[in-house]
Amino acid sequence: MKAEIIAVGTELLLGQILNTNAQYLSRELAAMGIDVYFQTVVGDNMGRLQHAIELASERADILLLTGGIGPTQDDLTKDALAAVLGRELHIDAAAMEQVEEFFVSRGRDMTENNRRQALVIEGCTPLPNETGLAVGVAIAQDGKFYIVLPGPPKEMKPMFDRQAKPWLQQHALTDEMPIYSRMLKFAGIGESLLEDKLLDLIQAQSDPTIAPYAKEGEVSVRLSTKAASEAEAEKKLEAMEAKIQERLPGHIYANTDMPIEQKIVEIMSERGLTLSAAESCTGGLLMESITAIPGSSAMFLGGFVCYSNEMKEKLLRVPRSLLEGEQAPGAVSREVAEALADQVRTITGSDFGLSVTGVAGPGDSEGKPAGLVYVGLAERGKDTEVFELRLGGNRESVRVRSVKTLLYRLWLRLISK
Amino acid sequence: MKAEIIAVGTELLLGQILNTNAQYLSRELAAMGIDVYFQTVVGDNMGRLQHAIELASERADILLLTGGIGPTQDDLTKDALAAVLGRELHIDAAAMEQVEEFFVSRGRDMTENNRRQALVIEGCTPLPNETGLAVGVAIAQDGKFYIVLPGPPKEMKPMFDRQAKPWLQQHALTDEMPIYSRMLKFAGIGESLLEDKLLDLIQAQSDPTIAPYAKEGEVSVRLSTKAASEAEAEKKLEAMEAKIQERLPGHIYANTDMPIEQKIVEIMSERGLTLSAAESCTGGLLMESITAIPGSSAMFLGGFVCYSNEMKEKLLRVPRSLLEGEQAPGAVSREVAEALADQVRTITGSDFGLSVTGVAGPGDSEGKPAGLVYVGLAERGKDTEVFELRLGGNRESVRVRSVKTLLYRLWLRLISK
Fold first, then answer.
1. For residue A411, what is the enclosing H or E element?
2. I need a surface site. Which of A88, A117, B56, B233 has the fewest CB within 10 A?
3. Is the CB of A23 less than 8 angstroms away from the CB of B37?
């Protein structure tokens, strides 16, 4: 099965917004075993929109259209598809009720154009919108399958996941078994080393298939398999996860999609452990990552950003002899990272204390090269560990990777118990 | 003039990467007065790539291709374009020298496939790559204009800005005067109010044209004008900026593209002023934003993340009477925001002290609703100000907008001197 994604909206062609929908749907379709050969973006223009739909109907079996189903006269996606298919539009009663209720519940008058959000194509399966007002459309004609989804990602994603995906499984992929997948999340390993270790499995396109994804400081692997039942799929996914786990012990921190800081918040909250941090070159990024996780207040007490030497001394009682003078190791050193981690743990009274000190760049600092970073891990009743990192990349990259590396070390410590 | 952007790469169709290049080029082309009617994404496949180029040649005057010009056998963009144009490929001497030098300077052997990065189409203008190895291509044929750019944004952007854009001005837009633009950056105002205030100017498509852009907590307006000379353009841009400034006094913090924290770092560094911060619900995001700016170490001393009540008392000496007890205003209050700002300024000895305390959500906290946030601004020798914010949106949105609002207040204070 081949699919084409058509994103509709002049704001995309003006570059005012980024087409994240195409990426999301491409990943989902790949995991369902459906090939995407083209993605198209077209504006809110009836003629060009119909042209794009006709063209895609020639080159693909499944068409996914996103956007252009709101209340305004610019929103033409359903009109264009109906015209290409030679069908009429009508108001869907359930969707209309939802639109009306929305306005009643807010005590606002509904303007006439809002009725457009309840339009569907005759003979289609309406796709309810759980997080917005515009109803979606799924329809099959002449062996082709058409799906219309809203533009805003927070409406598009749930409608695809819960409405369109099962519809496609049932109507377009009838000859094929459903696909099940699992996301393995890795820490403390780069993309190239990971690929290297799994190369034979990736290239064999074995069952389950293995697809690695990388972004700054984070690597994930998606396992996908076709199976007659969920139980059968789980068995295959489990076995492959175990195989990968064996090759890369101590790197998989989760088998669902979440950042490592969320895993740490979960583990520490569960065990009633507390955390604090002292940051120099990362300037708050470490604490920000942790406190971005809902529920982190159960385990995160607080901490310091000690950007200047004076603050390291004043707020965290780092001895001046470590910071200044000819014999001093200086702010970017193993000794200072250790002192910061120890002190923040002691001052806050937390179970664990983290520290980062380094040169984020651009440029060297106090004779130390950009990318040289020391991260410290203190634990009540244990020796404090310090890790020296030599990172490439720009300021942002050095900061992100310092944080991810330190979180990895903390996670390793937590699971070693 | 109509343009089409073709992004080449199977990794885009698998959803492994996001097509940020299309957004960037669309914005740039819009500012040059060129309409983009379609964006297309196609994989690393010779047949489909040629089909996409032929199709775009029919519907547009200018084709921009990104990606698929690296060293591997998968990189087919130049081959496909050469085939469609009926031209040969040959090695560009200057580009080849650059590739060879790269390997010599790193003491590595150059593998044969790297020669592919120096390939150009006969009769083209080669576009030098200042930040990578693969050379770009600009060529005109039968009244159509073709540009080939690298896929990685850090190579694509400089090549477009410094090579492709002037080439297009010179070859494709000969009948038109060049376009000049200026980015106005706003703080303390939402997109809808801004549009409202400028609606007549936006709709009139006056000269200069006005295009607003919004992202979380930030609004920008791009002014563009065609002019025979830069001096003439500057005059028109200046006049329109003054007109907008008059309608929205105290909101334009810069007329080049930069975040407000950068403006603050610049002003404070220049005047030798120093800053510190105490964050509760934003958990480090404020300090992280400031320290993300290179050079911030000149003005930012440090600060605290005091997530728990205990830490507010222990680290920042907030009186317990404010935090706990029936009569206490509680951690999320005007009084605590004031105490935090005062204390962090006093403890660090900085000229200015910032504070944030609130409920980021999801869900209420201690009887206060999600989105209720107090931000404090202390200055040496001045009364401390506290602002109450009632923000909508999710946890991330509340955090970002709290930070942006506080930075806006600080900027206002700095420019009022």
1. helix A395-415
2. A88
3. no
